Structures are given as C-alpha cells and as structure tokens.
Amino acid sequence: QLQLQESGPGLVKASETLSLSCAVSGGSISTGNYYWGWIRQPPGEGLEWIGNIYYSGITYYNPSLESRVTISIDTSKNQFSLKLSSVTAADTAVYYCASFLRSGSKFDYWGQGTLVTVSS
Amino acid sequence: QSVLTQPPSVSGAPGQRVTISCTGSSSNIGTGYDVHWHQQLPGTAPKLLIYGNNNRPSGVPDRFSGSKSGTSASLAITGLQAEDEADYYCQSYDSMSGHVVFGGGTKLTVL
C-alpha cells in the first residue's frame, strides 16, 4: 500500500513562497493509475483541494488558487512538490498530500499532514 | 461555500443509526460521478471510508454504508460507537470545473 509523507518548513513569512514536498513509498509515482494531489485544511475548517499532477507533468489546479500555485513532480526521486506564492495568514493550514486514483476519481491514501503557519 | 453541501453536525446515542447527507448538482453527483467519503478522527489525517458510492475499503466495518441517488449521496452509520466520533467529508468530481470537490464536512458527535 502507498505511503505518503509531507516535508517542509512549518513557518513561512507573509508575502513569501510556501514550499512543500511529498515523498511516495510503496509504489512508483510514475504509474499511470494515479494522479498526485495536495489538499489543505485551515485550523477548525474543512478540506480544500489545491491541485493534482500526473506523472507526465499535467496539472489541474483549484481556480481560487491557480494564480499562486505550482505543483511539480520528480519521478527520479518518487516525489512531488507544492509551491504557493505570496502567502498571507489565510494560507495557514495543515497541508496534506494524497494519491488520487484515476479509476473512480478518489483520494485513497493520505499523508499525515504538515502544519504551515504564515507569520507577519 | 463548498460545491457539495453537508450538514455541519449530526449526533446520536451509542447503538443508534445516523445518516449524513451530501447534496450536489447536475454537474457533479448528478452527472454520474462517484461519491466517496473520508473520515477524519480528531487530530489525524482523513482516511478513505467509502468509495464508489457504496464500497468499503478493507478493514472498514460494515456498520458504515453509502448510497447515492440523483444529485445526492448519503453515509449511514449503524450501531453507533464512541470511536465513530469524527468529521466526515464527501468528495466527488465536477465536470463543469473539471476539478475535485469536497463537501464542507459534518461533525458527528456520539452522545
């Protein structure tokens, strides 16, 4: 079974760029069966989909974040990454990476999540 | 404002049955896209609970079941247990936007 692990700074200054990585184990990130996604959850709030990436590099982003988001993939390292630019306090959240199975369009495995706080 | 609408909270006593609704539209659930449910226990990451409207991953008790009709879906939990206290999220796909959509989440309280 797949395992995903987020990593990156827990504190980012306002107006700077948030950068996170997600290491995938238990399977190849290059499998055509999956997209790889990022989801976030502000404290006390619900889940918000950020975007997905395919091993070929094709990306899909939430329109509300699209102008600030870049998701990339490194198949040689079996990991994918998230960059969110010009962050504000509203971007403070737990960020999850997850595997998105194409068959059925569902997130089936989630990372444990990492809290990113935006400071002023 | 989530694309999929869920009640903010539901509650029930141990042993009872509760249901959580997830209402979408003709561009997501109503188009035929599957609905999936994720369970988030306090302080933990979400976990896939029901997939493809009514299927349980290995290890999920049969007390949990899902259904879908028209533009809505439901999650039912029978024989409620204290350990079921969690947040529950429905998830689908929206053809109008071409994107993944989540419900706003429902907090289940076991009385």
What does this structure look like?
The complex is a heterodimer of chains A (120) and B (111). Chain A contains no helices and eleven strands. Chain A is mainly β and 120 residues long. In chain A, the strands form two sheets. In chain A, strands 2, 4, 5, 6, 9, 10 and 11 form a seven-stranded mixed beta sheet that branches. In chain A, a hairpin with a 6-residue loop joins strand 4 (34-41) and strand 5 (48-54). Chain A is globular. The model of chain A has no long low-confidence stretch (mean pLDDT 96). The N and C termini of chain B lie far apart (28 Å). In chain B, strand 5 (64-69) and strand 6 form a beta hairpin. Chains A and B meet through strand 5 and strand 10 of A and strand 7 and strand 8 of B.
Shape of chain A: globular
For this structure, the quaternary state is: heterodimer
Give the structural class of chain B.
Answer: mainly beta
Distinct helical segment count of chain A: 0
The whole-number mean of residue pLDDT values of chain A reads: 96
Runs of chain B with pLDDT <50, length 5+?
Answer: none
Derived structural class of chain A: mainly beta
Give the H and E element order of chain A.
Answer: EEEEEEEEEEE
Q: Biggest interface between protein chains, with counts per chain?
A: A-B, 22 and 27 residues
How much of the polypeptide of chain A forms β-strand, as a percent range? over 45%
Give the helix level of chain B as a range of percent. Answer: under 10%
Chart the SSEs and their pairings.
The complex is a heterodimer of chains A (about 120) and B (about 110).
Chain A: E1 3-7, E2 11-13, E3 18-25, E4 34-41, E5 48-54, E6 59-61, E7 69-74, E8 79-84, E9 93-101, E10 106-110, E11 114-119
Parallel strand pairs in A: 2-11
Antiparallel strand pairs in A: 1-3, 3-8, 4-5, 4-9, 5-6, 7-8, 9-10, 9-11
Chain B: E1 9-12, E2 18-23, E3 36-40, E4 47-50, E5 64-69, E6 72-77, E7 86-94, E8 99-102, E9 106-110
Parallel strand pairs in B: 1-9
Antiparallel strand pairs in B: 2-6, 3-4, 3-7, 5-6, 7-8, 7-9
